[in-house]
Specification:
heterodimer; A: 4-stranded antiparallel β-sheet; 58% strand; globular; B: 116 residues
């Protein structure tokens, strides 16, 4: 069966510091991968998605970036965090073709101070 | 373009009462529809999905949803609420015709409270 991991679970970072969040999927190949952010009271915001290694689509231009160095690894980064980057970050995966839904990781709670 | 509207950001029911969470969609192509549940500080869990087979879809934890094309609705129901159902629920629609990329458009969510 497939599993998705995210780490760290929680993170407190000062403004201006770098960020690296990691997501890995096990038990499947060639998944589509997604990064979402949930800010308080604002629902789910799609940040990036990837349909293959090195293929990243950005939905919201901002100071975040994503990379997919391996088939089942998805990384969210920032060079300098802003207060507005605080939120709950979720990684998800799906298979291409017919939509069967997306499957989410446990999330990372980021607080920028 | 596809969109999803969830009516009611907060719904409160008594334990044992009917749960009804409303979702209306807009889509220019036959949609694929999903309901997710999120417990505090956790990821989203897929409850059920409609992918153009049976219009009444049964999911986990006793939930079900009915696809009504004429009403462009996909409401989530459960006959008898449990305290453990207290969570936030999200409706989603596939954003691509045929859903080839798997991208979803999510509603803003409905928080369900269950009173003892």
């Amino acid at each position: 069966s497939q599993t998705i991991h995210q780490w760290p679970a929680t993170l407190v970072q000062p403004v201006g510091s770098p960020l690296s969040l990691e997501c890995t999927v096990e038990g499947t190949s060639n998944p589509n991968l997604y990064w979402y952010r949930q800010a308080a009271g604002r629902g789910l915001q799609l940040l990036f998605y990837s349909v293959g290694i090195g293929q990243i689509s950005s939905e919201v231009p901002q100071n975040l970036s994503a990379s997919r160095p391996q088939d089942r690894q998805f990384i969210l980064s920032s060079k300098k965090l802003l207060l507005s980057d605080s939120g709950f970050y979720l990684c998800a995966w799906s298979l291409g073709g017919m939509p069967r839904g997306q499957y989410f990781g446990p999330g990372t709670r980021l607080t920028v101070t | 373009a596809q969109s999803v509207t969830q009516l009611g950001s907060h719904v409160s029911v008594s334990e044992g009462a009917l749960v009804l969470l409303r979702c209306n969609y807009s889509s220019s192509v036959p949609p694929y529809l999903f309901w997710y549940v999120q417990y505090p500080n956790q990821g989203l869990q897929l409850l059920l999905k409609y992918t153009s087979a049976a219009t009444l879809v049964k999911g986990i934890n006793g939930f079900e949803a009915e696809f009504k094309k004429s009403e462009t609705s996909f409401h989530l129901t459960k006959p008898s609420a449990h305290m453990s159902d207290a969570a936030e629920y999200f409706c989603a629609v596939s954003s691509s015709p045929g859903g080839s990329q798997g991208n979803l458009i999510f509603g803003k969510g409905t928080k369900l409270s269950v009173k003892p």
